[in-house]
Write a structure and sequence with these properties.
Layout: E1 6-8, H1 11-19, E2 24-28, H2 32-43, E3 50-55, H3 57-64, H4 67-78, E4 82-86, E5 94-97, E6 102-108, E7 111-117, H5 120-136, E8 138-139, H6 147-158, H7 160-172, H8 185-195, H9 200-209, H10 215-227, E9 231-236, E10 244-249, H11 252-256, H12 262-271
Parallel strand pairs: 2-3, 3-4
Antiparallel strand pairs: 1-7, 2-5, 4-8, 5-6, 6-7, 9-10
Amino acid sequence: MVSQNLLEKDIENILTTALGSVDEMVVVNPSREMIRELVSAMDGLETTPVVHVLAAERPLKDVMDDFLVASTAADLVASDTLTLHVKEDMPVNSLLVSAESVVSVVSGGDHVAGLVTDDGAFVDDAYAHYTEQYESADSFSLRTPPLSQVRETLDSDIGPETAADFDAVLSSLQTARGDGDGLDEVTISLLVAAKNGELLYDISKWGEDIGLASKATFSRTKTQLEDRGLIDTEKVPIDVGRPRLRLMLGDDRLGDAEADELASVAQSLLAS
């Protein structure tokens, strides 16, 4: 149980301390930064409590546009340790509410404070109130597949080399949005597929099967990357039907890059 006020340099340390002392918690009105750090903190714990997030829809959508956050959150949802609900009428502060304490999270300059109360009557009322609020709120639809599923199926359906390169690219990124702030998941998939000479049909079918994106999205993104010179294709004849396209890297700078450098080189080429 958290019984003393907390003062840390970042939100993740506050969250890690609070999560380590409870079996279940309602996180109320988290900021965008707190949602991101909550997912990171939960992912790093050996024993994870059940966490119910009650947030406004806009912050959740904004944060879950990042594939790195959303796919990790999807793993936590799949393991029944994280649930996401939306409600627009939120309190002013961000709260960590458990059966043992209520922590109000306040940012100030270079530090973040967790102001704690463990007064029995107040905590009981707050926990009952926000549990009821959470249970009556709408579920947030997280449409990103779990990262573990992405990794496992990429390895089995496409190949271990492509899966390893995909992981290396993800590890090199701070965010994966595709809006100029990192590469999105479809672009990453196509680049690592091209690095390994995979067929567009195979990578797009894999992506659609696991719910990453539609075949049309893969095809459209391939065309955009091809137009910018990052990807090239060659026709591969098959016994029946139209030839399929083998993906190849279209720029020597990408071909010379290690997997963990692929994203930075691709981003610099897209920005030029």
